[in-house]
């Protein structure tokens, strides 16, 4: 059966080779031409060959001629260094002419700087490696070299333009037309060392914009104005400060080759000049004043009076701006006139009723806006300012005025103080420390007492604001003051920006314990809380519209809060709890943490080890401050059940390693880090860390010793036969019982003798489970255990890809008599044997020849017997007439 299969395989291979070889026809192609290039510019001509026979890597030869049918001149070859014509040898040696192999069947002829004498016809030729001559072996392309006539002449734009105006960028791009070439012009903006494309026109008359300018071009803010005689103009409308930089103009000459591909043959970039945009904010000025003569910055009014304030605006590019004007009272918006003239009042409904001031804004000129408030009340007093926001339309002139708007500048005038006379309550303040911290993380409590209260109206209320000023740092650093929080006249708690999270979580609290006493409490004081504290108490009264308004405010003297901050420290001590004196025993150690200047904390633990004091450190297990235990990558996953890390006390951790092996010997210690939380719900913050002393596991295991060897009955097999290679192990010393011994055996294969690439073929673990790796071969493998110490690798249906070096690696396991635990011995590697799979030519052909000879002899014998039978049958029926003895008489009768 094997011989018949081999016969069919050989016949199919011969038939496939004949059919495949008969269909191939070599095809050599070059870049489509004619190729138009410019003098002094690089030239690349690609040549590739396909559908060829022979080796994968093909060689190429380049030749050229001034005329199509002229004498060819050798340029360069991929395999003959002396191929070049003497007139070109210097350029080839200098690298000006070179051939670069892109793939096995693709090369590129490169000319560093094209010359006029390089124009002509180029041939790419491939020497034949085919068994049958078919297809084409060379291809031709024409190269046209034209002089470099491209000129780029930009005009210098204005160096400084105001924001919101237009900029025209003019650039002249020309060339002498000797061949069908095309031009394109590109404007670029250079900032720093990077140039960004604004717009490109050409070479087909199309327009391509940069990514950041597409929207502006669609809105008409960027317009292209083609001129005559190579003049092109780019108009940028409504420039902003983002349009500052160095403008460049690039002119490029293109050629359109056969195949529909545009090729850039030469280009030139020239700087047009630097354009600076004057921001609107530099010239914008806003001034607020009273309508009195002369204008005053301080007004004294009584309840019911009329308040009139004037806002004056000035700017260099005022006609290009659209203004939004707002009046602010004590930093809050009162009324706003938007840029389209719509007025929006931001006053509450209650303040617009009765005898209270009703605000209105009017535009009295191109640069003047007036605020009018009738019948002011005491709550209308304060500082008034005019805020102006200047907008510039992003869309161009063709956008119809409906484009997008960009706020160019915002300015607020100096305030005008308006005082409305009233009788203010008065009182005195006293601040004291109730709980003073001695160290970080301890609680702090401050109290603010209000005494000598006078002129507080019936139903009046008190509010408080706590402010903190940090301790002074360097001499050049100003002291920053921040609001901790406040309680307003409605009793609402208003947290400060820096303390909002701590107030919401309860780590900081503001309370009113009595009508005249306020407290500030820190549950866990931080170092940043040191500094000066001030309580500002405000008096609130109810007006006729039942609104609570602030009538007075006083601040206490500052009170300094300071303590000696001590850095936390950590000390870790490791001690051995259980000694591992023999293999298979249990090792246990504890790590105890001692802290100083550290409050409530969580701990993360790393159990680390190293074979010696100079070897690499391995992480065995980790324990997070949230009590999450994870295994490191230093231990076999199958032994993770033997690893235990627990928290045995508030500051004590225990590590246990069961069934120690020889590979576990070394040093073990704990790396512990202390973590703290400033408040519940926040993430852990690292405080400090320390490593413990190192505990050593050191024992000697007097177990058996092993050796390994590999051998095969034969090193040569024929295809489809089975190859056998036996891996034998020997044991010496104290030999355990048979059922107390097991092996893990792995087989490896190297394709070449002494090669570096080794792959695993198959393996059997100590429990007898066989695993076969994926193999790119038609053969199959199996592992046979002949006895306790012998394993045989069988390669069934050997193939030529199975030829190579084989070796085996074994790991013995034995049951230790001293501990009763399975112990792993050292890994053993056998020598290598080489297996050769030969192709038996006579064995594959002798059977077909024997069948042919036998068939020929059989057909010949059958033909001879058939002829004799036919002759006997035909001659038996013919009548025989005896001839007369008298021949003369017979003739006369005839």
From TrEMBL:
<feature type="domain" description="Ig-like">
    <location>
        <begin position="147"/>
        <end position="249"/>
    </location>
</feature>
<dbReference type="InterPro" id="IPR013783">
    <property type="entry name" value="Ig-like_fold"/>
</dbReference>
<dbReference type="InterPro" id="IPR003599">
    <property type="entry name" value="Ig_sub"/>
</dbReference>
<protein>
    <submittedName>
        <fullName>Prostaglandin F2 receptor inhibitor</fullName>
    </submittedName>
</protein>
<keyword id="KW-0732">Signal</keyword>
<dbReference type="InterPro" id="IPR013151">
    <property type="entry name" value="Immunoglobulin_dom"/>
</dbReference>
<dbReference type="Pfam" id="PF07686">
    <property type="entry name" value="V-set"/>
</dbReference>
<keyword id="KW-0677">Repeat</keyword>
<dbReference type="InterPro" id="IPR013106">
    <property type="entry name" value="Ig_V-set"/>
</dbReference>
<dbReference type="InterPro" id="IPR051102">
    <property type="entry name" value="IgSF_V-set/TM_domain"/>
</dbReference>
<feature type="transmembrane region" description="Helical">
    <location>
        <begin position="849"/>
        <end position="875"/>
    </location>
</feature>
<feature type="domain" description="Ig-like">
    <location>
        <begin position="294"/>
        <end position="388"/>
    </location>
</feature>
<dbReference type="GO" id="GO:0016020">
    <property type="term" value="C:membrane"/>
</dbReference>
<feature type="domain" description="Ig-like">
    <location>
        <begin position="25"/>
        <end position="134"/>
    </location>
</feature>
<keyword id="KW-0812">Transmembrane</keyword>
<keyword id="KW-1133">Transmembrane helix</keyword>
<keyword id="KW-0472">Membrane</keyword>
<dbReference type="Pfam" id="PF00047">
    <property type="entry name" value="ig"/>
</dbReference>
<keyword id="KW-0393">Immunoglobulin domain</keyword>
<feature type="domain" description="Ig-like">
    <location>
        <begin position="704"/>
        <end position="829"/>
    </location>
</feature>
<feature type="signal peptide">
    <location>
        <begin position="1"/>
        <end position="25"/>
    </location>
</feature>
<feature type="domain" description="Ig-like">
    <location>
        <begin position="425"/>
        <end position="549"/>
    </location>
</feature>
<dbReference type="InterPro" id="IPR007110">
    <property type="entry name" value="Ig-like_dom"/>
</dbReference>
<dbReference type="InterPro" id="IPR036179">
    <property type="entry name" value="Ig-like_dom_sf"/>
</dbReference>
<keyword id="KW-1015">Disulfide bond</keyword>
């Amino acid at each position: 059966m094997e011989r018949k299969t081999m016969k069919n395989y050989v016949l199919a291979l011969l038939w496939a080779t004949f059919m495949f070889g008969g269909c191939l026809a070599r095809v050599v192609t070059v870049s489509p031409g004619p190729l138009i290039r410019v003098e002094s510019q690089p030239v690349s001509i690609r040549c590739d060959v396909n559908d060829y026979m022979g080796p994968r890597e093909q060689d190429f030869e380049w030749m050229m001629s001034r005329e199509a049918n002229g004498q060819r001149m050798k340029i360069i070859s991929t395999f003959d260094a002396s191929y070049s014509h003497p007139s070109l040898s210097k350029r080839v040696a200098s690298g000006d002419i070179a051939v670069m192999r892109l793939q096995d069947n693709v090369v590129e002829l490169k000319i560093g700087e094209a010359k006029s004498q390089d124009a002509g016809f180029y041939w790419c030729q491939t020497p034949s490696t085919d068994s049958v001559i078919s297809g084409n072996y060379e291809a031709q392309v024409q190269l046209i070299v034209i002089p470099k006539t491209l000129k780029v002449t930009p005009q210098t734009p204005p160096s400084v333009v105001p924001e919101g105006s237009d900029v025209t960028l003019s650039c002249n791009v020309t060339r002498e037309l000797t061949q069908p070439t095309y031009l394109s012009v590109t404007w670029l903006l250079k900032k720093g060392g990077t140039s960004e494309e604004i717009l490109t026109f050409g070479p087909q008359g199309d327009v391509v914009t940069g990514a950041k300018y597409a929207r502006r071009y669609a809105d008409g803010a960027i317009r292209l104005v083609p001129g005559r005689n190579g003049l092109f103009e780019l108009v940028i409308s409504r420039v902003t400060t983002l349009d500052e930089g160095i403008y460049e103009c690039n002119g490029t000459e293109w050629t359109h080759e056969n195949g529909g591909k545009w090729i850039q043959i030469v280009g030139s970039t020239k700087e047009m000049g630097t354009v600076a945009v004057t921001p609107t904010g530099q010239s914008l000025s806003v001034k607020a004043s009273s309508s009195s003569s002369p204008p005053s910055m301080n007004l004294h009014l009584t309840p019911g009076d009329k308040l009139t304030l004037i806002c004056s605006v000035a700017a260099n590019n005022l006609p290009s701006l659209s203004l939004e004007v707002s009046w602010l009272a004590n930093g809050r918006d009162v009324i706003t006139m938007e840029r389209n003239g719509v007025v929006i009042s931001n006053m509450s409904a209650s303040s617009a009723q009765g005898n209270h001031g009703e605000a209105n804004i009017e535009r009295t000129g191109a640069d003047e806006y007036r605020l009018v408030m009738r019948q002011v009340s005491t709550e209308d007093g304060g500082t008034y300012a005019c805020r102006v926001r200047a907008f510039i339309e992003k869309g161009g002139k063709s956008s119809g005025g409906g484009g997008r708007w960009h706020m160019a500048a915002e300015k607020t005038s100096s305030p005008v103080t308006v005082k409305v006379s009233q009788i203010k309550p008065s009182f005195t303040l006293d601040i004291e420390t109730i709980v003073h911290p001695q160290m970080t993380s301890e609680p702090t409590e401050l109290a603010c007492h209000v005494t000598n209260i006078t002129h507080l109206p019936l139903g009046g209320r008190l509010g408080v604001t706590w402010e903190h000023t940090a301790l002074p740092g360097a001499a050049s650093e100003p002291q920053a003051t921040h609001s901790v929080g406040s309680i307003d006249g409605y009793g609402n708690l208003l947290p400060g920006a820096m303390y909002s999270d701590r107030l919401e979580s309860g780590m900081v609290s503001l309370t009113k314990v009595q009508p005249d006493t306020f407290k500030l409490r820190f549950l866990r004081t931080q170092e940043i809380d040191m500094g000066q504290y001030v309580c500002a108490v405000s008096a609130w009264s109810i007006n006729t519209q039942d609104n609570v308004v602030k009538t007075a405010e006083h601040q206490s003297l500052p009170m300094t809060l300071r303590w000696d901050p001590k850095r936390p420290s950590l000390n870790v001590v490791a001690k051995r709890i259980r000694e591992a004196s023999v293999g298979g025993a249990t090792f246990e150690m504890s790590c105890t943490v001692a802290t100083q200047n550290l409050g409530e904390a969580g701990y993360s633990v790393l159990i680390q080890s190293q074979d010696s004091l100079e070897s690499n450190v391995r992480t065995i297990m980790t324990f997070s401050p949230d009590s999450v235990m994870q295994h490191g990558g230093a231990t076999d996953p199958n032994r993770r059940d033997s690893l235990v890390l627990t928290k045995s006390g508030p500051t004590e951790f225990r590590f246990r390693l069961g069934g120690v092996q020889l590979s576990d010997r070394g040093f073990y210690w704990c790396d512990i880090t202390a973590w703290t939380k400033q408040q519940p719900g926040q993430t852990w913050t690292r405080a400090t860390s320390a490593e413990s002393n190192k505990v050593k596991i050191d024992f000697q295991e007097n177990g058996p010793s092993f050796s390994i060897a590999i051998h095969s009955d034969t090193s040569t097999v024929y295809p489809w036969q089975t190859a056998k290679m036996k891996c034998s192990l020997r044991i010496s010393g104290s030999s355990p019982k048979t059922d107390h011994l097991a092996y893990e055996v792995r087989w490896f294969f190297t394709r070449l003798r002494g090669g570096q690439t080794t792959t695993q073929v198959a393996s059997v673990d100590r429990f007898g489970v066989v695993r076969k790796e994926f193999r790119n071969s038609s053969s199959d493998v199996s592992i046979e255990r002949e006895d306790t110490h012998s394993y045989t690798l069988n390669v069934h249906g050997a193939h030529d890809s199975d030829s190579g070096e084989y070796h085996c690696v074994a790991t013995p396991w034995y049951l230790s008599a001293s501990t009763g635990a399975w112990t792993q011995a050292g890994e053993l590697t056998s020598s290598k044997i080489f297996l050769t799979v030969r192709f038996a030519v006579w064995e594959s052909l002798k059977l077909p020849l024997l069948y042919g000879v036998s068939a020929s002899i059989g057909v010949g014998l059958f033909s001879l017997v058939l002829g004799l039978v036919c002759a006997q049958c035909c001659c038996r029926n013919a009548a025989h007439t005896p001839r007369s003895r008298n021949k003369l008489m017979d003739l006369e009768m005839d």
